[in-house]
Specification:
The complex is a heterohexamer, with two copies of chain A (about 120 residues), two copies of chain B (about 130 residues) and two copies of chain C (about 90 residues). Chain B has about 130 residues and is α/β, with parallel strands linked by helices. Chain B is built from five helices and five strands, in the order βαβαβααβαβ. Chain B has helices spanning about 15-30, 60-70, 80-85, 90-95, 115-120, and strands at about 1-5, 35-40, 75-80, 105-110, 125-130. Chain C is globular, with a radius of gyration of 12 Å. The chains are: A alpha/beta (about 120), B alpha/beta (about 130), C alpha/beta (about 90).
């Protein structure tokens, strides 16, 4: 069975990429072995304490917390991109595995297909 | 004070139309006038009559229509941008022999002259970029 | 002049350009993904008053991370800032 | 070799659909198979039947249709992306009680399962980002 | 009469912003006093030698050469953004006035309305 | 692995990420606005083979400005490069 890596590199709410990529991850995890890699502002997708009520938008970040239940194996983050934003893994609402650049390179090569914006 | 509001982004795809909508509501609530809302680039897609967003999400094209009904707003989508992106009123659908029209009531298709007219005649012009 | 910035400083040059072309008396409104800048120390170096749209800050979970130089505002105050400047440039 | 092609950008607004079209033509010309073209995010707007671009510009939705007729391509637009952006076939227009359908012939509306199916069954999956 | 400044900061062909902003400039110059400021990759809009035939796209860059005839007063470029791209004003197909950062700041303040993506 | 980059290095981090996460044996195709990088000396520092789509380079008037390390290709060669790598990552 092929392994799919979903990369998320957009922040939440500014565009629809975050929400729609999450939909693709949920679908992927139903049919294949999937992992998720958060790069750049994609890390903000899982920042704790999001409240989009005043924006009349949906707080879909909670769905990230359920990804394990859907069968997603691991959520990885770039340690460098995390640090550049002044964030630590404790600030995120899901358990993530931070990777250095070589770790990200390895992850890309371990997967057969890479999806995501 | 009279505002011209320019919207460059498609609804949902970019937050710009939601921001513009919030700004427009706040301007009207503060007693200001909205001279025109001009939808340019992908912004013209705010004028679609066919969007069917999930029920727990805001329906942005409908929200513009509701605001326009309440305050008699001039909602103009740029014709050149609309033609490339497949947004047509009855007249344009006939002219280009297309099978349907999809411009929502409350919006009008017009030319770029309306952008310049807004910039010249409003006291302030603010752009919400994609 | 009022400047708005609606993109993250990590995702392009909107903030860079805004700061490079700022004049005395200018003010800045951060909105949408632009509010990310309100949490970074680069913003402390800016001498112009900086505002951030509260709804955008809350939606992104950034309320507790704001730099002290940034003032949260609603859309009504955003509208008011527009009336107080002669022109508005949106950096994206 | 079998390719799955994923398109994220709207025609004209982003060059991604034009690049995907050139790539698809080259793949077919080299004797490869295209398992599916999946249009996601704003890419679903490639499937509009109502675009009327200037006559001296390429008609991208029509170019996809022509390629699909010649090579029996599977052109799938994501249903969730389509509903938010106002792209409907007859079935969805009826379901949501909208006044018209605007999906071009040659395209089908389907779910995200078709994206995953493509990724799993094609030999290579290539994405053209907005 | 109000003075309008159009800012162009996108490169050609990658998106429609360049072509559509040019349309707005042409319309603006018919009704008002207009200038154009090229920032960032917007400078590539007027690079000499563009040939979009192989792309099946339109070479609209030539229209920039006609902007003066349409009444556009001056086309300005950021000297810093020009240099960062290894370009000089001689590489551009229209006459442009390079401005340092203070010059751009001044230009922004001289205009009543600023349009463009 | 084949990497594609379709954005200008001045307009975001697509190229930065591509170069940061490159492995031995990987190759890079620059397309659309990504071909801007083919004219800049930053590209000389990259050890992977770099290709640029000729139609995109010509459309932008960049043919005479290419760095010597960049090889121009057509879409047919782009397709062929895809077949020669096990997977493709599109950086945007």
């Amino acid at each position: 069975m092929k392994r799919i890596l979903f990369i998320q590199r957009h922040g939440p709410h500014g565009s629809l990429f975050g929400q729609e990529t999450l939909d693709a991850i949920l679908m992927g995890s139903a049919f294949a072995s999937c992992s998720v890699l958060l790069l750049e502002d994609g890390i903000y997708q899982v920042l704790k304490g999001q409240d989009a009520g005043q924006l009349e938008s949906r707080d879909y970040s909670v769905t990230y917390g359920a990804l394990r239940d859907y069968g997603v194996e691991t959520i990885y983050v770039s340690a460098r991109h995390l640090a550049a934003r002044g964030l630590a893994t404790e600030d995120l609402l899901v358990e993530t595995v931070p990777l250095d650049d070589a770790g990200v390179t390895g992850l890309l090569h371990e997967h057969d297909v890479i999806l995501g914006a | 004070m009279k505002f011209a509001i320019v919207v460059h982004g498609a609804p949902y795809s970019s937050q710009s139309s939601l921001s513009a909508l919030h700004f427009a509501r706040a301007a009207l609530a503060s007693g200001h006038e909205i001279y025109r809302v001009f939808f340019y680039h992908d912004g013209v897609l705010n004028g679609t009559a066919l969007a069917a967003p999930p029920q727990d999400e805001i329906d942005i094209p409908s929200a513009w229509q509701a605001l326009a009904r309440e305050h008699t707003l001039d909602l103009v989508v740029c014709i050149a941008s609309s033609l490339r992106r497949g947004l047509l009123d009855e007249t344009e659908a006939d002219r280009y022999e297309k099978p349907a029209a999809n411009l929502a009531p409350g919006f009008v298709i017009s030319g770029l002259g309306q952008l310049i007219d807004g910039a010249l005649n409003a006291d302030r012009t603010i752009t919400f970029c994609a | 002049m009022l400047h708005t910035v609606n993109k993250s400083p990590f995702a392009g040059s909107a903030l860079d350009n805004c700061l490079a072309f700022l004049a005395g008396g200018d003010e800045i409104v951060l909105l949408e993904d632009g509010v990310v800048a309100a949490t970074l120390d680069i913003i402390d170096r800016c001498e112009a008053p900086i505002y951030a749209i509260e709804a955008d800050v809350k939606a992104r979970g950034l309320s507790a991370r704001l730099r002290s130089t940034v003032k949260l505002i609603g859309y009504d105050e955003f509208v008011n800032l527009c009336t107080m400047h002669n022109s508005i440039r949106s950096w994206s």
